[in-house]
Specification:
The protein is built from seven helices and ten strands. With 249 residues, the protein is α+β, with helices and mostly antiparallel strands. It has two domains: 54 residues; 180 residues, Sulfite Oxidase, Chain A, domain 2 (Alpha-Beta Complex). It has a five-stranded mixed beta sheet with strand order 2-1-10-5-6. α1 crosses α3. The radius of gyration is 17 Å and the shape is globular. The structure holds the ligand Nc1nc2c(c(=O)[nH]1)N[C@H]1C(S)=C(S)[C@@H](COP(=O)(O)O)O[C@H]1N2 and molybdenum atom. The site of molybdenum atom has 6 residues, from loops.
């Protein structure tokens, strides 16, 4: 199914779901934030309607794109990231902080030794190109289990190592997408170590969302109650510049 057709289908279903919530179903705070925000609510709602864990289509090896272009930043720019790149990210650490019972740091080896998942999925960029690639990484749920999010943690924020102008790239997802089985911190792409251009040492794969949600060059993960007060307050670099926060496809 083409992206357009899928979006139409999702939009159609979304109205039904929205009508359902008017009847007074219990909804999460993240959902309430979104209800008044227009079109993106429809895909958000549909994803919740079809199930918290509904999987996107996975493809066969034969369907993988021979070329998977890079987009946006093609390297990190902070001193910490540059130092990491120069020694194969041997001393690189992913920090997980914020509303968690056990803040922690994970080396790349620690992430690689956790349960892994490989998935062949289609990446859809809002600019109108798509590519099918194979991603290997640790499910974000595995990392979250080790840090134990507090009950008031509503969002997972990903802080990246690349500067766009004066701002560092960042992204955020809610807890439903954070625990989704296809949400992984990828350290491998197409059976290779994740290349620098695609976000080394780790990048997010959040498969029900548009390309820009798939943060590359992740350095820090922070669990928060609200997105207010983080950079422009809209939950991501592109969101702060007018793009949708949920960006479901
Ligand atoms: N840190 C960071 N993550 C990012 C971006 C970026 O510029 N910086 N660009 C986003 C966009 S718009 C897309 S389409 C994808 C591109 O991923 P790729 O370079 O692996 O194709 O990364 C997303 N994640
Ligand atoms: Mo994109």
């Amino acid at each position: 199914m083409s992206l357009i057709t899928r979006r139409r289908l999702i939009t159609g279903l979304g109205y039904t779901a929205l009508a359902g919530t008017a009847g007074g179903l219990a909804v999460s705070p993240a959902f309430r934030d979104l209800v008044l925000k227009g079109g993106e609510t429809l895909s958000y709602n549909t994803h919740r309607l079809v199930g918290r864990d509904a999987l996107v289509r996975e493809y066969s090896e034969a369907e993988m794109s021979p070329d998977f272009r890079t987009n946006g930043s093609t390297a990190g720019s902070t001193d910490e990231w540059l130092a990491g790149r120069d020694n194969g990210f041997a001393n690189w650490q992913l920090g997980v902080s914020g509303l968690v019972a056990q803040p922690a740091q994970f080396s790349l080896d620690a992430l690689r030794s956790m349960p892994a998942r490989t998935q062949i999925t289609r990446h859809d960029c809002v600019e109108g190109w798509s590519a099918i690639g194979k991603w290997t990484g640790v499910p974000l749920s595995e990392v979250l289990e080790r840090v134990q999010p507090k009950p008031n943690a509503n969002y997972v924020v990903f802080r990246c190592a690349d500067r766009m102008g004066l701002s560092l790239y960042y992204e955020s997802i809610d807890m439903v997408d954070a625990y989704h089985p296809q949400t992984i911190l990828a350290y491998g792409m197409n059976d290779q170590t994740l290349p620098v251009g695609h976000g080394a040492p780790i990048r997010l794969r959040v498969e029900r969302q548009l390309g820009y949600k798939n943060a590359k060059y992740i350095m820090q993960i922070e669990l928060v109650e609200s997105l207010d007060g983080i950079a422009g307050g809209k939950g991501g670099y592109w969101e702060d510049r007018g793009y949708e926060w949920y960006a479901g496809i």
